[in-house]
Design a protein that fits this description.
With 253 residues, the chain is α/β, with parallel strands linked by helices. Helices cover 32% and strands 19% of the residues. A seven-stranded mixed beta sheet has the order 3-2-1-4-5-7-6, with helices on both faces.
């Protein structure tokens, strides 16, 4: 049996065919559906070209795409598109009902400014839904050591629509770091989850060891910090205009 066909058969048998199975994307979409009200004005940070997340959000509200790349202008699911310098959002204070970030935080070089910008553009009571990778998962420990040209090659061969790969910094990629950024930016924590779904990076050869790891880290909450992904929702306080701290203390990863 060809390697690809064997891999597909393994995933179908041990994951996709099981009634209780929910993949990582479905988990994140469910979170957004729960937390973002219908007809919201939604800022998708790092929207890029047309993609499933933009399409899903367009069914909830009016999507504003924001990206450092001109690719965002080719995203047919956004009502308006903006490029920016990767630091300050070109949007007025309190003009957004919901911000969404899907696998973007790992690329942010200055996450404290990023989170403060999210808090600034959100209206009181507005939410920030995000999905990102976990620094303490073995895949991303390896990724940190992988040259950028390898990431570019993967991006070109993927079906994501991306034609570029961007440097990764992993400065907002642990539960502790995210909680620290949330507090310093003056946001409230609504939920923060560690997620390990199917071992999507597995090949037919590595499938069973990676599945064993998935089963292990999902067996107890004590191993939650080692799961592959992090999803969450933070919110701008609805009734209190909370000032961001001017004297942040160092957070451990």
């Amino acid at each position: 049996m060809p390697t690809t066909a064997l891999r597909d058969k393994l995933f179908s048998r041990y994951y996709y065919s099981r009634p209780q199975f929910v993949n990582g994307t479905a988990h994140f979409f469910s979170l957004m559906s729960l937390r973002i009200p219908i007809d919201s004005r939604i800022l998708e940070i790092g929207a890029g070209p047309s993609n499933p997340t933009s399409e899903y959000l367009s069914g909830i509200g009016r999507v504003i795409g924001l990206d450092i790349s001109e690719e965002v202008t080719r995203n047919r699911f956004v009502a308006e598109a903006h490029t920016y310098n990767g630091t300050l959002f070109p949007l007025p204070d309190g003009s957004i009902d919901a911000c969404v970030s899907d696998y973007v935080l790992e690329h942010v070089a200055d996450p404290l400014t990023h989170f403060k910008e999210v808090a600034r553009v959100l209206r009181p009571g507005g939410v920030f839904c995000f999905r990102t990778v976990n620094l303490w998962h073995y895949i991303f420990m390896v990724s940190r050591l992988t040259p950028l040209w390898v990431h570019k090659m993967v991006a070109l061969s993927s079906a994501s629509g991306r034609t570029e790969a961007y440097p990764t910094h992993y400065k907002a990629n642990s539960l502790a770091r995210l909680r620290w950024l949330q507090r310093i930016a003056g946001l409230d924590a609504v939920e923060l989850n560690s997620v390990e779904a199917e071992p999507s990076y597995a090949s037919a050869v590595t499938f069973f060891p990676m599945m064993a790891y998935e089963r292990l880290v999902n067996s107890t909450s004590r191993l939650a910090r080692f799961r592959a992904g992090i999803t969450g929702c933070f919110a701008r306080p609805a009734n209190i205009q909370r000032a961001a701290s001017s004297t942040p203390t160092l957070a451990l990863n």
